[in-house]
């Protein structure tokens, strides 16, 4: 085990997997990569160009090229419109996202770790519950969830967004698969022989070996929470509590039945709202080198 | 980080523990297991409250029927109707039609997305890791973009009147109207692919990173080409990851909702109110106002999706590695 | 599997029951403190200035505006809240037809408070808030419907300004060779059909001895269907969706589409977005049915909703009536960016607010005609339109059928026949009396 790990580390950083790729295959590889890069990024070009236009040019000039440059005005409008409500939304989203996702990571990583490392009665049933919950159509749960949250006095409070986010079945699944790959049972066994309790073993060995996995769970959870808008739409009342996505959604739909059209603000807002996510991705890259490994549906 | 995980040898107490007898060993093992199980308590407590309870509430709804009377303005009488709603669901031609329609779409789009994601992951795996890391972030931009942003972008790009794609395809003599009923599935499929390839690639690429590198060396010594290595070593190694993202893809596609809904305004003559199973369910719950029936439909859908996923999983997992 | 899993399921059940029981026991109603009655108003249109004005001029009632995301969001929120039975607002912005919402169990009877104030309202506005003679909301009326044409294009091709719907068809035929379409029938929006029938004084539903009579094939409906059929069959109309806003605006602005029925609230939007054709447009009277005896515009109104479970329906009605029938209430809706007021559809005399509703540049030299057109439109409103309890679902079906009809998959007559069958079947399936 340790030898492969060491060997892998030696190869890890910069060597590509293919040793001496031929010129032809290098060209093919790069053609493919550039194609996908363009496919992923090019559509966003429209967004960036649009962010520099005023509302009238937005609809009447070529969407792929610049017209009069209004980016600064638009940005200022975004941050000042309606008593700077956009900043408020950003702050809310950050609060709900961080609180919800930190809690979720702790709860789900612990659960996934246990499902991977211990065999106890009911384990199979629990795994079955997790897998089965992937299948439930969300439409089924809207009304019952609302009635329940209303009973729990969570409606119209941030708790309705934060607390349910803790219990993500997919994150548990992710954490379990990670734990299976990252935590060798022999290590835990050795810790037990040394007299460490199960809880200490988790914090000193399990949690540490699972840093990468936890980072992934956190990151995916945070992206989900940042972009979520259905929960806030159903459970929060009044724009002071809204998230960015709900706010932008509301701005986008204003034009349907009112004389105002805020599409321009939505576009700038969308770009600004991407910034924290991209920043987070970049800053977490070092925890996150090897990406996500997922295995069987056990 | 190996992928092909057999069930781990789970905590068995060392036989030579001090003062070991058979019964104390069992007791010790039970304590360990119990402590282990306690890690799952917070999650499952929450899971029961926020998932199981609402599901049970919905299940019980599906067993009742609400009837109006007179002009339909008074209170409805709710009565227990057993499996009547399910019986109705089984004979609902529009619902099964929508399911069939989406299933056909899934048969095409899911393999396509998986093959592209796999290809992309293999491409990334064959360049320097630093470069791959940067490219990976860029290719995740669509995944990071929230639905409303993707919608904004693609409504514009697809627009036959002002978007750039229709004139672009005209250059090649192709008359493409992405809002037309002929191209609706292409448009929806592309929207899905754009949003999901990044994520799938991430998972497959992650699995590729876990392939022990020594295997490549020995393969090269044996004179295998890079293509050969990719096909015969890398692909089998990530098969389980592919199966997983496919299962998630099946679930997601059969429950597709927001993408077709977007095109309801563009081609309402094609994308009807019962175009996909979830659209049928929404229409029943929120327009027709029959939540009981909508609950029954949701349960039937969950069962069908579960069945299909299970069959797919069984089939793909039995094949020799 | 058996014993273990069964025990786990039972344990899970016990846990849920415990959780709900705890939740129940916590559920004690909050007592309202002495002082002004607080009324929550839910809406997606920002009416904070109106609320501020009300609060500044009243001491016994305080209104709190609670912003919602959009129309569907408000509908979902209100349905959920009424079902949960707590924290129910006393006023909600309109998101549907009163009879359909009443049938869903969402509204409360406010007849006692609205009936005495009937004289404050525009008479046409009243029926939109009533079901079977009782009020379930505050009448709002509706915006005046008129037509807006690209006069420059009409003149360029020598086409006379249409006075009847037959004229519109004739204009369409004259414009078609120039690649110009006379109107737009968006595939997702059957309101053109509904408006034609309302204008003709027709209705799909009526009540006969405690049962619904459904008649989609009335003379008014058939007349409306005939007009639309001719527009579609001769290829005189566009099917541009509202969803693709840039394309829609480009279509108008490039002179490819030259007339549209419209109302005051849409004007500022066109003023803001049109570039080339700004100043070319002219407001004209809504075309009439050939042979109609009296000038008429469709005026099916809506209501500010008073949800079921509202603890203060009296105060809620007072607020709603103040907002919609007092000069203070209307004046407070002034929007600085557009320079317009919310249309006072419930006011018997909307003329003081008309000038502000007409944008400065859109109509160019025709701007002075706007006031007379709008005045005439709002004075000639007709509303015999009655909506049945299942209209929300019926409307979704209508959307599907409409999309088929405008793309020539079925005829408009078939649409009416299909809708007749769908509606009767749906009413019967719900256990509602049908007279047909």
From TrEMBL, chain B:
Q: Where are the transmembrane segments?
A: 32-59, 99-123, 135-157, 183-208, 237-257, 293-313
Name the chain's protein.
Sugar ABC transporter permease
Highest taxon, organism lineage:
Bacteria
An example of a Pfam family matching this protein is: BPD_transp_1
By its UniProt entry, which Gene3D superfamilies does this protein fall under? MetI-like (1.10.3720.10)
| Chief location of this protein within or outside the cell | membrane
Organism for this UniProt entry: Kribbella karoonensis
The segment annotated Disordered runs over 1-24
> Where in or outside the cell is it found?
Cell membrane
From TrEMBL, chain C:
> Which top-rank group of organisms is this from?
Bacteria
Task: Extract the InterPro entries matched here.
Answer: Bact_solute-bd_prot1, SBP, TAT_signal
Q: Keyword Membrane, does the record have it?
A: yes
Signal peptide annotation: 1-23
- UniProt keyword terms in alphabetical order: Cell membrane, Lipoprotein, Membrane, Palmitate, Signal
**Is Iron-sulfur given among the entry's keywords?**
no
PANTHER family from the entry?
ARABINOSE-BINDING PROTEIN-RELATED (PTHR43649), POLYGALACTURONAN_RHAMNOGALACTURONAN-BINDING PROTEIN YTCQ (PTHR43649:SF33)
- List the protein's name: Sugar ABC transporter substrate-binding protein
* Source species: Kribbella karoonensis
Upper classification of the organism: Bacteria, Bacillati, Actinomycetota, Actinomycetes, Propionibacteriales
């Amino acid at each position: 085990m340790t030898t492969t790990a060491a060997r892998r580390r030696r190869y890890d950083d910069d060597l590509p997997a293919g040793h001496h790729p031929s010129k032809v295959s290098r060209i093919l590889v790069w053609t493919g990569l550039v194609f996908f890069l363009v496919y992923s990024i090019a559509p966003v070009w429209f967004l960036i160009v649009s962010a520099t236009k005023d509302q009238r040019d937005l609809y009447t000039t070529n969407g792929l090229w610049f017209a009069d440059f209004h980016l600064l005005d638009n940005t200022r409008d975004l941050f000042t419109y309606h008593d700077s409500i956009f900043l408020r939304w950003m702050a809310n989203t950050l609060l709900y996202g961080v609180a919800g996702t930190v809690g979720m990571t702790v709860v789900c990583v612990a659960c996934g770790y246990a499902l991977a490392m211990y065999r106890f009665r009911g384990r199979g049933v629990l795994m079955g519950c997790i897998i089965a919950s992937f299948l439930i159509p969300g439409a089924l749960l809207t009304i019952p969830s609302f009635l329940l949250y209303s009973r729990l006095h969570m409606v119209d409070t941030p708790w309705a967004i934060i607390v349910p986010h803790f219990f993500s079945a997919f994150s548990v699944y992710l954490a379990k698969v990670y734990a299976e790959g990252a935590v060798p049972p022999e290590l835990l066994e050795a810790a037990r022989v040394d007299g460490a309790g199960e809880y200490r073993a988790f914090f000193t060995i399990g949690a540490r070996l699972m840093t990468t996995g936890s980072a992934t769970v956190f990151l995916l959870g945070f992206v989900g929470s940042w972009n979520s808008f259905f929960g806030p739409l159903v459970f929060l009342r009044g724009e002071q509590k809204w998230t960015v996505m709900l706010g932008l959604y509301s701005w986008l739909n204003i034009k349907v039945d009112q004389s105002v059209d805020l599409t321009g603000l939505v576009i700038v807002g969308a770009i600004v709202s991407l910034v924290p996510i991209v920043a987070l991705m970049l800053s977490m890259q070092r925890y996150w080198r090897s990406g996500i490994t997922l295995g069987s549906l056990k | 980080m190996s992928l092909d995980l057999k069930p781990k040898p789970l905590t068995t107490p060392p036989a030579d523990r001090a003062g070991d007898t058979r019964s104390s060993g069992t007791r010790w093992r039970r304590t360990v297991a119990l402590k282990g199980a306690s890690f799952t308590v917070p999650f499952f407590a929450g899971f029961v409250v926020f998932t199981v309870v609402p599901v049970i509430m919905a299940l019980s709804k599906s067993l009742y029927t609400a009837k109006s009377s007179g002009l339909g303005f008074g209170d409805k009488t709710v009565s227990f109707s057993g499996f009547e709603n399910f019986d109705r669901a089984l004979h609902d031609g529009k619902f099964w039609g929508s399911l069939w329609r989406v299933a056909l779409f899934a048969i095409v789009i899911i393999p396509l997305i998986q093959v592209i994601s796999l290809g992309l992951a293999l491409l990334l795996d064959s360049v320097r890791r630093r470069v791959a890391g940067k490219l990976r972030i860029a290719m995740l931009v669509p995944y990071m973009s929230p639905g409303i942003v993707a919608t904004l972008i693609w409504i514009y790009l697809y627009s036959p009147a002002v978007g750039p794609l229709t004139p672009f395809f005209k250059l090649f003599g192709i008359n493409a109207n992405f809002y037309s009923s002929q191209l609706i599935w292409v448009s929806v499929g592309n929207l899905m692919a754009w949003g999901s390839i990044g994520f799938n690639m991430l998972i497959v690429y992650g699995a590729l990173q876990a392939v022990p590198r020594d295997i490549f060396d020995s393969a090269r010594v044996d004179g295998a080409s890079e293509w050969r290595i990719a096909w015969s070593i890398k692909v089998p190694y990530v098969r389980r990851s592919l199966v997983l993202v496919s299962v998630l893809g099946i679930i997601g596609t059969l429950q597709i909702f927001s993408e077709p809904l977007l095109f309801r305004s563009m081609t309402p003559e094609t994308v009807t109110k019962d175009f996909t199973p979830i659209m049928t369910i929404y229409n029943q719950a929120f327009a027709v106002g029959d939540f009981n029936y909508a609950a029954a439909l949701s349960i039937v859908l969950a069962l069908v999706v579960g069945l299909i996923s299970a069959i797919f999983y069984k089939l793909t997992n039995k094949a020799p590695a | 599997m058996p014993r273990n899993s069964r025990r786990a399921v039972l344990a899970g059940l016990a846990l849920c029951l415990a959780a709900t029981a705890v939740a129940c026991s916590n559920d004690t109603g909050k007592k309202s403190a002495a002082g002004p009655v607080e009324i929550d108003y839910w809406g997606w249109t920002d009416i904070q200035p109106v609320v501020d004005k009300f609060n500044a001029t009243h001491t016994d009632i305080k209104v709190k505006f609670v912003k919602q995301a959009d129309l569907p969001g408000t509908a979902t929120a209100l349905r959920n809240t009424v079902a949960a039975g707590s924290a129910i607002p006393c006023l909600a912005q309109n998101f549907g037809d009163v009879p359909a919402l009443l049938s869903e169990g969402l509204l409360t009877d406010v007849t006692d408070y609205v009936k005495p104030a009937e004289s404050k309202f525009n008479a046409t506005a009243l029926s939109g808030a009533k079901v079977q003679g009782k009020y379930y909301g505050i009448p709002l009326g509706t915006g005046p419907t008129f037509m807006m044409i690209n006069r420059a294009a009409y003149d360029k091709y020598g086409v006379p300004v249409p006075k009847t719907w037959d004229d519109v068809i004739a204009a369409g035929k004259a414009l078609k060779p120039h690649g110009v379409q006379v109107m737009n029938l968006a595939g997702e929006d059957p309101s053109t059909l509904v408006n034609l029938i309302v204008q003709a004084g027709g209705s799909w539903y009526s009540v006969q001895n405690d049962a619904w009579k459904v008649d989609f094939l009335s003379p008014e409906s058939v007349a409306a269907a005939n007009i639309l059929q001719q527009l579609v069959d001769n290829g005189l109309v566009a099917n541009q969706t509202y969803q693709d806003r840039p394309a829609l605006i480009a279509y108008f602005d490039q002179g490819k589409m030259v007339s549209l029925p419209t109302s005051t609230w849409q004007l500022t939007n066109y003023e803001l977005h049109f570039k080339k054709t700004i100043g070319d447009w002219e407001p004209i009277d809504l075309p009439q049915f050939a042979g109609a005896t009296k000038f008429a515009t469709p005026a099916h109104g809506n209501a500010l909703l008073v949800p079921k479970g509202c603890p203060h329906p009296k105060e809620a009605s007072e607020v709603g009536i103040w907002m919609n029938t007092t000069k203070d209430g209307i004046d407070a809706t002034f929007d600085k960016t557009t320079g317009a007021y919310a249309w006072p559809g419930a006011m018997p005399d909307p003329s003081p607010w008309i000038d502000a509703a007409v944008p400065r540049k859109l109509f160019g030299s025709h701007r002075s005609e706007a006031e007379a057109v709008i005045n005439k439109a709002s004075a000639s409103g007709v509303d015999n339109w009655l909506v049945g309890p299942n209209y929300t679902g019926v409307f979704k079906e209508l959307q599907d059928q409409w999309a088929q009809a405008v793309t020539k998959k079925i005829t408009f007559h078939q649409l009416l026949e299909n809708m007749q069958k769908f509606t009767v079947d749906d009413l019967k399936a719900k256990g509602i009396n049908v007279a047909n």
